[in-house]
Amino acid sequence: MRSHGGDGTAPHNPFVDSDPANGVDPVILAQWETWFSAMDQADITILFVFYDDGSLVWDTGDAVGAEEQLFIQTLVDTFEHHDHLIWYVAEDDPQAFSTARTSAIAAAIRAADDRDHPIGAIRWTASSFDLGTDPAVDQLAWNTTASTAGAFHDQMVTLVEQAAGAYNVHHYNANNLGSGAVARRAAWGLAMGGGYATLSTHALDTVTVEDLEDCGRVREFMEAADLSGMRPHDELAWGSTEWGL
Q1: Cα–Cα distance measured from residue 67 to residue 93, given in angstroms and rounded to the nearest whole number
Q2: Are 9 and 58 a contacting pair, CB within 8 Å?
Q3: For the CA atoms of 31, 35, 40, 42, what is the dihedral angle to 10 degrees?
């Protein structure tokens, strides 16, 4: 939902004729399904964000009204069959939502999802995550203005320590990572900090094969290693190594 106060224009929503009063357009959902199916089959995780930035369609305070409940239920029922899927309530949700409203939407998603996918909230700054004890929220996504691998790593370590195992930590909008060696080191720094990263600078129409291969190496290493019970302990680093577990 990128209309109604978000970063998009009037047609940037999934309604018939772009009007919420007309309900969700099955043709648009079918189009999305073709993209999501291709992603899911390729083991690419779908980050499904319901609302963009300041988008506010149903101004119902902290509650989820009947129209919004139907909207959420329809989207969840349509796409919950995908394996590689994380629901996000909104991008930088404090722009339009109170904490109570974000929590209510997360609870509505949780009630609608029969497959128990992770549900996250996105924060521009994650210094104090006010949904860390919410039973419907599994994941914190955060943005940052950091620009070096070490700064990314240190922030991730701090946030993972704050989470204390209650939720996952995901760097959502890594738009300062660039490409090549800079992006590779930042991706490793975030992973060695105990969290996940989305490299938004790797646009599909411009990203190089080499950059994608670098991402693949991080994934292959992390999936092959036995990381159970391990935490960042950089004081154990030796020689030219900067980060350790």
Answers
A1: 20
A2: no
A3: 150
What is the rounded distance in angstroms from the CA atom of residue 192 to the CA atom of residue 230? 10
Residue 41 half-sphere exposure, CB side, CA atoms within 13 Å?
6
For 198-226, b/e burial (b = at least 16 CB within 10 A) is bbebbeeeeeeeebeebbeebeeeeeeee
Amino acid sitting at position 245: L
Q: Which uninterrupted H or E stretch holds 24?
A: none
Q: pLDDT averaged over the chain?
A: 91
Three-state DSSP at 126 gives coil
Amino acid code (one letter) for 4: H
Q: Among candidates 239, 132, 148, which has minimal Cα distance to 190?
A: 148
Long-range contacts of 145-149 (CB under 8 A, 24+ apart): 145/176, 146/176, 147/176, 148/186, 149/182, 149/185, 149/186, 149/188, 149/189
Q: What is the pLDDT of residues 21-64, one digit of tens each?
A: 999 999 999 999 999 999 999 998 999 999 998 899 999 999 99
The stretch 135-146 carries a mean pLDDT of 88
Helix residue ranges, H only, the chain: 26-41, 66-79, 99-112, 149-163, 180-192, 209-224
Q: What is the DSSP string of 134-189?
A: -TT--EEEE-----SHHHHHHHHHHHHHHHTTSSEEEE---TT--SHHHHHHHHHH
Question: 175: pLDDT confidence band, cut at 50, 70 and 90?
Answer: low
CA 46 to chain centre: 9
- State residue 50 phi and psi, 5-degree precision: -70, -45
Sign of CA dihedral 118, 119, 123, 127: negative
